[in-house]
Specification:
Blueprint: E1 4-11, E2 15-24, E3 27-37, E4 41-42, E5 45-46, H1 49-67, E6 69-71, E7 73-77, E8 84-93, H2 103-116, E9 125-136, H3 145-148, E10 155-166, H4 167-179, E11 183-188, H5 190-198, H6 201-206, E12 208-213, E13 218-224, E14 227-234, H7 238-249, H8 253-263, E15 278-283, E16 288-293, H9 294-319, E17 329-332, H10 341-349, E18 353-355, E19 364-365, H11 377-386, E20 395-397, E21 402-403, E22 406-407, E23 449-453, H12 460-463
Parallel strand pairs: 1-7, 3-19, 7-11, 12-17, 17-18
Antiparallel strand pairs: 1-2, 2-3, 4-5, 6-20, 8-10, 9-10, 12-13, 13-14, 15-16, 15-23, 21-22
């Protein structure tokens, strides 16, 4: 069996992440994973496709040069915010009452339910995804999908939870990809895929709330009985926290984000000796200093995190499953590693809380350490799901030959456009550039701000890594 490649794009409010995996039979190896700051995105939705396409095009070019492949199409997720949920149902009269129900019939009745659902504003809305809730036969009710397959019945009825989003938000993804000269392979509704990358089967069965805290959106997905029962999202996340620091302290957005990542923590009363430390921010441009107590920084962060958690807990109560979450809460996403955030949720909710890391071990990877972080759960979820699609291939390999011990400057033959990939641009004339010395990355500009500790403390770089080790565990 020939190898095939899967390329996924996780487009968030603060970052865009591209991954490329090589699939050989049942095995998948992640060859490339890289993140860049995103642009033209707000609350996880593209509002400016032209701006959003720029970092995407750059990161795709980097992957192509590094792997010697041509990415013709990508897998991407639809926005998580602005999604509403409704219920739909469909009936199927079976001609042979003694034959067993098949998976094909389950898929057929699901399509019937989605196709027949009357959207209130079809010109503005589209169905992003669906989750089967229960199935009934001519003599039994409330079977799961796995239980009803193989049962004989004259009638099959299915009940579904469908998730509806804005058509414009989905269409802007197509425009962005077209401007980035890459085709669309698949669009996925990400919450179920993220859950598969983080949750165990027993957690889904016993009841769990998966909270994903991203930069612009925080979502909650509730599972019970192995089924996605509820989903909703709020437009607050890590960027809201950084913005609070920026406005309260008068910092730039970049500096506020860096301070949050380096020194941010919830629950100032749990910081022990770190609460007495003070950050000294030096502005080299105008020679002024500003002092920022770590405890005050934590108070700013905690106030916003409490607001986000309150909104999430309200959604859990609205779901009707608040008393059935035997496995409590799993916290994931880019903000999940904010110190004491999990402890704050446990204190406010009474649930057991754990940090949810993606199941990257089920995908071999080397040289891609970021793929195991909580911020990569959507990427891992898309890779795990797309791996099962045996017809999906997102790239073309570029063959090379050696001449006199040196890499060839031209491919053996010009790649032919693969119509099956749905490429939106012509590959004729595409060639590999002559080997050149790699350009040196431009040195980052010096920040106008320096961060020092007052009271002649040790340099920041000596103890930043140990900041969270000093925070008292609850």
């Amino acid at each position: 069996m020939e190898d095939r490649y899967i390329a996924t794009v996780d487009l968030g409010t603060s970052k865009i992440a591209l991954s490329v995996a090589r699939v050989s039979g049942e095995n998948a190896e992640i060859l490339f994973y890289r993140e860049k700051p995103s642009d033209g995105v707000r609350y996880g939705c593209i509002f400016n496709p032209a701006k959003a396409s720029v970092p995407l095009k750059e990161i795709i070019r980097e992957a192509e040069e590094e792997l010697s492949i041509k990415i013709t199409q990508v897998v991407i997720g639809v926005p998580r915010y602005g999604v509403t949920q409704e219920t739909a149902s469909a009936n199927l009269d079976r001609s042979d009452a003694e034959s067993c129900i098949t998976q094909e019939e389950i898929d057929s009745i699901k399509e019937m339910a989605l196709d027949s659902y009357p959207l209130s504003k079809p010109e503005e809305q589209e169905i992003y995804g669906a989750s089967a809730q229960s199935f009934s036969t001519d003599d039994s009710l409330n079977y799961t999908e796995s239980d009803v397959v193989g049962m004989p019945s004259a009638v099959l009825r299915g009940n579904f939870k469908i998730f509806i989003g804005l058509k414009k938000a989905s269409r802007n993804i197509d425009i962005m990809l077209n401007k980035a000269d890459v085709a669309l392979a698949r669009k996925y509704f990400l919450p179920p895929l993220t859950a598969n990358a983080v949750l165990g089967a027993e957690e889904k069965e016993n009841g769990v709330a998966l909270i994903e805290m991203g930069a612009g959106v925080t979502s909650v997905s509730i599972y019970q009985g192995g089924i996605l029962r509820f989903y909703n999202a709020i437009p607050f996340g890590g960027r809201s926290i950084s913005n609070d620091i920026k406005l309260e302290c008068g910092f730039t957005e970049v500096l506020a984000e860096n301070i949050k990542l380096g020194f941010g923590a919830c629950m100032p009363d749990k910081l022990q000796t770190m609460a007495d430390k003070i950050l000294q921010i030096q502005d080299e441009e105008n020679g002024t200093d500003q002092l920022l107590p770590v405890k005050y920084l934590s108070e700013i962060i905690t106030a916003r995190v409490k607001e986000i958690v309150d909104a999430v807990l309200f959604q859990i109560q609205e779901s009707g499953y608040a008393d059935r979450l035997r496995n409590g809460v799993v916290l994931t996403g880019g903000c999940a590693n904010l110190a004491n955030c999990a402890n704050l949720i446990k204190l406010m909710s009474g649930y057991n809380v754990r940090i949810g890391f993606p199941k990257a071990k089920s995908l071999s990877y080397s040289g891609c350490p970021g793929i195991a972080d909580t911020g990569a759960v959507a990427t891992v979820g898309m890779l795990l799901y797309a791996r099962e699609d045996t017809h999906l291939n997102c790239t073309e390999e570029v063959p090379f030959v050696k001449t006199q011990g040196k890499p060839a400057t031209q491919p053996v033959e010009e790649p032919v456009e693969q119509t099956t990939t749905g490429s939106v641009f012509d590959t004729e004339g595409w060639e590999v550039k002559k080997e050149e010395k790699p350009k040196k990355e431009p040195k980052p500009k010096k920040s106008n701000f320096l961060i020092n500790w007052t009271k002649k403390l040790a340099p920041v770089e000596d103890f930043v890594g140990g900041l969270y080790d000093k925070i008292e565990e609850n």
